[in-house]
Specification:
The structure holds two protein chains of two kinds.
Chain A: E1 2-5, H1 6-20, E2 24-28, H2 43-51, E3 52-54, H3 59-71, E4 75-79, H4 90-103, E5 113-115, H5 133-137, E6 143-145, H6 150-162, E7 167-169, E8 179-182, E9 194-197, E10 202-206, H7 208-223, E11 228-232, E12 235-237, H8 241-251, E13 254-261, H9 266-278, E14 287-291, H10 300-304, H11 310-320
Parallel strand pairs in A: 2-3, 2-4, 4-5, 5-7, 6-7, 10-11, 10-13, 13-14
Antiparallel strand pairs in A: 1-8, 6-12, 9-11
Chain B: H1 3-33, H2 49-56, E1 64-66, H3 72-77, H4 82-89, H5 122-136, E2 143-148, H6 155-166, E3 171-177, E4 180-181, E5 184-185, H7 195-201, E6 205-210, H8 214-229, E7 235-240, H9 260-267, H10 270-280, H11 285-307
Parallel strand pairs in B: 1-2, 2-3, 3-7, 6-7
Antiparallel strand pairs in B: 4-5
The complex binds thiamine diphosphate and magnesium ion.
Thiamine diphosphate sits between chains B (43, 68-70, 118-120, 148-151, 178, 180-182, 186, 243) and A (29, 57, 59, 81, 85, 88).
Chain lengths: 323, 332
């Protein structure tokens, strides 16, 4: 076991993958200085400017060029800096990368990892705070990952780079400094959830930093006599229906919580699936938590209005139990 | 007024505006670092004031400005109220965007400032559209769109400038070239000679100017805007300057050659240069110092007043999203 922060974990995984496989390379703005959050610190010194490439501010070209390079046999790790700027490369991702394999009858592959830091962070306002994971889940052809711990960021980054499909890799900006023990030999199968806490009374389903909040909420609930099970999906496509459905069959109760806007969010997909596959097992009302369908403001008190809090999760869990 | 008097007045105005911009941003940086009152990122334009003052003195209040994340100077020079701007940086009620936008999204439609932007290059097509709209309405107002040297590598630069060319729009594009794009030396990621040549290739007349020479910027912009107002079509001004601070106020900019910024500050400060110009016109050191002191005391007061303003009411979090289906009625 090695102690690592969240940002160190994916950086270390990337470094090891670059050492092991010459075709892996990184491309994006300011990478030589580590990028915005230090995700690439030291890598240009170690691997040189060809494999850790500094680009112009040209998101469409970064995404499109990485795709072209992927089709001829390289494995690019693409940095979009803030998920918000990835929207400048939407055609490249959605119309080109996601569809090429299918349209070309299986001739082309796009083994790429597309990193898009997400989430509410320090008064970053409406254009630097979004979590749009549900958009990507809606696009056939893409894998969508949302790691929430250093261990997962380490093991999932490795799995993502090995994956032959295009992977949208969403790291939360709020947890770069989160520390944890990492087992560098642990392999994670993409699409498998993590049960972060076992419990008998209610199933809390979440991902990204909100999963960490659910773990906290479960502790608070335990002190109040409620035994919550916390499932961190960590992969949204494919996602671990089996883990969720079997947990709800055990607890009979479900809360889904995510930071992004509740309306049209992936929480709705989780709830619908549970209702379809384990509706008969539900013993209380289902609760779904997410942001109001509004925009993220700069003023801290307004930014807070968009947050799902630990208290909201605790209250929702108790509501499913009629408390 | 004699020509000499006119020149002196404009020269003093340029200095006063640069001093106000400098003082505003110094206070903003103090508010961020010393007082921890600015939560989000601010991108200072310290050392670049010659561009803001020299360009904007040729535009009227009802002309249109679009700017960037580094837009405090442009916005002040367009006539925005510094207290409303400082409140915005502090996320307070009475900020020009009600505290919802912050430094990177400052807008003041009352003075024709249609927004800074958090997305590099995004303002270029929008500004072309504003000029398009003015032209459609037969207006004699014009647009000025300011963006950085890094922005010319994004697609919207090509699309927006070409658009203005094709529709022959009343717009001045200003590439404010401070030589850096975040932590990257822009020349290392830019093919060819840059903004002016690219604009020329799209059919625009392009002029390059020393952006730290406020008088030169004001002179050349006066000529250009006269042509644009006379229906001469879009033009490009490439103003060379230097970003003295880090990318944000929190960035120590260790990636820059040692001493580069200090050297610029010592030898190429637009305010010091303008003071020398005015001294040559006969202004005394006392007169020049008084301009400095007035700007300083104005902005110290602005920060104090802004810091004493409350945060916006919580319900503003759900206001101004949309009319039907508003989250104020239906948030989930
Ligand atoms: C589309 C997009 N990509 C990346 C960023 C991150 N970013 C913010 S400012 C900046 C540098 C911009 O450089 P330049 O255009 O020269 O303006 P300057 O900051 O020097 O004023 C970058 C890369 C962004 N805001 N938007
Ligand atoms: Mg620049």
């Amino acid at each position: 076991m090695v102690k690592m922060t969240f940002v160190e974990a994916s950086r270390e995984a990337l470094r090891e993958m670059m050492q092991a496989d010459e075709t892996v390379w990184c491309v994006g703005e300011d990478l030589g200085r580590g990028s915005v959050f230090g995700q690439y610190l030291g890598l240009q010194d170690e691997f040189g400017p060809d494999r850790v490439a500094d680009t112009p501010i040209s998101e469409a070209a970064i995404m499109g060029a990485a795709f072209g390079a992927a089709m001829v046999g390289t494995r690019p790790v693409v940095e979009m800096r803030f998920s918000d700027f990835a929207l400048c490369a939407t055609d490249e991702l959605v119309n080109q990368i996601a569809k090429a394999r299918f349209m070309f009858g299986g001739q082309s592959r796009a083994p790429m990892v597309i990193r898009k830091p997400i989430g509410l962070w320090r008064s970053s306002a409406a254009q630097h705070s979004q979590s749009l994971e549900s958009w990507y889940v809606h696009i056939p052809g893409l894998v969508v990952l949302c790691p929430a711990t250093p261990q997962d960021n380490y093991s999932m980054m490795k799995a993502a780079i090995r994956c032959d499909d295009p992977v949208v890799y969403l790291e939360h900006k709020n947890i770069w400094g989160m520390e944890g023990e990492v087992d560098t030999s642990l392999e994670i199968e993409l699409g498998k959830a993590a049960v972060r806490r076992q419990g008998a009374d209610v199933t809390l389903v979440s991902w990204s930093d909100t999963a960490n909040l659910c773990v906290q909420a479960a502790k608070t609930l335990a002190a109040q006599g409620v035994d919550a099970e916390v499932i961190d999906l960590r992969s949204l496509w494919p996602w671990d229906k089996e883990a969720v459905v079997s947990s709800v069959r055990k607890t009979g109760r479900l809360v889904v919580a995510h930071e992004s806007v509740a309306v049209g969010g992936f929480g709705a997909e989780v709830v619908a699936t549970v209702v379809e596959q384990a509706g008969d097992a539900l013993r209380g009302p289902v609760r779904r938590l997410g942001a109001p369908r509004s925009l993220v403001a700069y003023a801290p008190n307004l930014e807070d209005k968009m947050r799902v809090t630990e208290q909201m999760i605790v209250t929702a869990a108790k509501e499913t139990m009629g408390k | 007024m004699s020509t000499a008097d006119h020149n002196t007045k404009r020269g003093r105005d340029l200095l006063a505006m640069m001093e106000r911009i400098r003082a505003f941003e110094e206070q903003a940086c103090l508010a961020a670092e010393r007082d921890k009152l600015v939560l989000g990122a601010i991108h200072p334009s310290i050392g670049q004031e010659g561009v803001a003052a020299g360009v904007m003195c040729n535009f009227n209040r009802d002309d249109i400005l679009l700017s960037t994340h580094r837009g405090h100077g442009h916005t002040l020079a367009k006539g925005a109220d510094p207290l409303a701007m400082m409140r915005e940086l502090l996320g307070r009620e009475g900020g020009c965007c009600g505290g919802k936008g912050g430094s990177m999204h400052i807008a003041d439609f009352g003075v024709g400032m249609l927004g800074a932007n958090g997305v590099v290059g995004a303002n270029i097509t929008i500004a072309a559209g504003a000029a398009h709209g003015l032209k459609l309405q037969g207006s004699d107002r014009v647009v000025v769109d300011i963006f950085g040297d890094g922005a010319i590598n994004r697609g919207p630069f090509l699309e927006g400038v070409n658009w203005a060319s094709v529709f022959d729009l009343p717009i001045l594009f200003v590439c404010e070239d401070n030589q850096y794009s975040a932590t990257t030396k822009t020349s290392s990621v830019t093919g060819g000679p840059g903004a002016a040549a690219r604009a020329e290739s799209l059919g625009l007349r392009a002029t390059t100017v020393d952006g730290n020479d406020a008088e030169a910027v004001a002179d050349i912009t006066a000529e250009i805007t006269a042509r644009i107002r006379a229906g001469g079509g879009p033009e490009m001004l490439h103003a060379i300057t230097y970003r003295r601070t880090g990318h944000t106020s929190f960035d120590p900019a260790g990636y820059r050659p040692n001493g580069e910024s200090e050297h610029e500050a010592k030898t190429n400060d637009p305010i010091a240069r303008q003071r020398a110009v005015l001294a040559g016109m006969g202004l005394s050191t006392d007169e020049l110092d008084a301009i400095h002191a007035a700007a300083q005391s104005e902005m110290v007061q602005v920060l104090a007043d802004a810091a004493a303003t409350p945060f916006p009411a919580d319900e503003m979090a759900l206001q101004d999203v949309q009319d039907i289906g508003s989250p104020a009625q239906e948030a989930y």
